[in-house]
Design goal:
With 196 residues, the chain is α+β, with helices and mostly antiparallel strands. It is 19% helix and 27% strand.
């Protein structure tokens, strides 16, 4: 049986010179393209290593301390829940912002971001208690701080008489030997005003 083939299409069973000339350049082009792509990739890696030396050197963050604050009542030692524990990091005596936490049901608040060697100003605020404040220097990798909160003391009034002061308000009973201001004692008659 005779097969009829198209004049421009080679027979698949036979290999001719013309079909090899078309196949060779395609293979060479693929090889050249792969070599060029590999060259570009390798050169980008080499330049990437040089760029690492041009940028700033990586500095790891400083070591931090774990600070646990326990807030209790001064009268009975029971924990105070939901008290505000405020950490003020200090740099050369200046406040650098603050971090606020609330105490849990055990009266504890824990923070682990304060760098070792820093000074913090600790402030504790709880409803119905005096505000607590003190400075602490962080020298180790962990620090436990116990805060005993006191009830507010009675306010000092300048209008009340105090034992340690001669100044102050009047006593509860007026003294009969001293007349109220602007009046003369009862034993002496009042002098009439003088006219000029």
């Amino acid at each position: 049986m005779l097969k009829k083939t198209h004049p421009f299409q080679p027979d698949p069973d036979t290999l001719t010179i013309s079909s090899m000339t078309h196949a060779v350049p395609a293979r060479i082009l693929r090889t050249l393209f792969s070599a060029a792509l590999l060259t570009v990739f390798l050169s980008s890696l080499a330049f990437a290593q040089d760029d690492a030396h041009r940028w700033r050197k990586y500095t790891p963050p400083p070591a931090t301390a774990k600070i646990t604050v326990t807030v209790t009542k001064a009268t009975n030692g029971k924990p105070i829940e939901n008290a505000a524990v405020v950490f003020h990091p200090m740099k050369q005596g200046k406040d650098e912002g603050n971090l606020e936490l609330k105490t849990n049901e055990e009266g504890k608040a824990t923070i682990e971001v304060i760098p070792i060697g820093d000074t913090i100003r600790l402030q504790v605020i709880a409803s119905g208690y005096q505000t607590f404040g003190d400075d602490y220097e962080i020298t180790t990798d962990s620090k436990d701080i116990d805060v005993k909160m006191k009830r507010p003391a009675r306010q000092y009034s300048i209008y009340e008489k105090h034992d340690d002061s001669l100044q102050g308000g009047s006593d509860s009973k007026p003294d009969s030997s001293t007349p109220p201001s602007g009046q003369a004692p009862a034993s002496q008659p009042a002098k009439p005003p003088q006219s000029n």
